[in-house]
Amino acid sequence: MASWLASILGVVVVGVIVELLTQNRRMGNFIRSIYGFIVLLVIVTPLPKLLKVDCWTINTEELVNAEMLSNLTQNNRQIQITQTLRLMGYDQALVTVIDDMIYVNLGVTVDAITLNELHKKLGEDVIVI
Question: Does this model's pTM top 0.90?
Answer without folding.
Answer: no
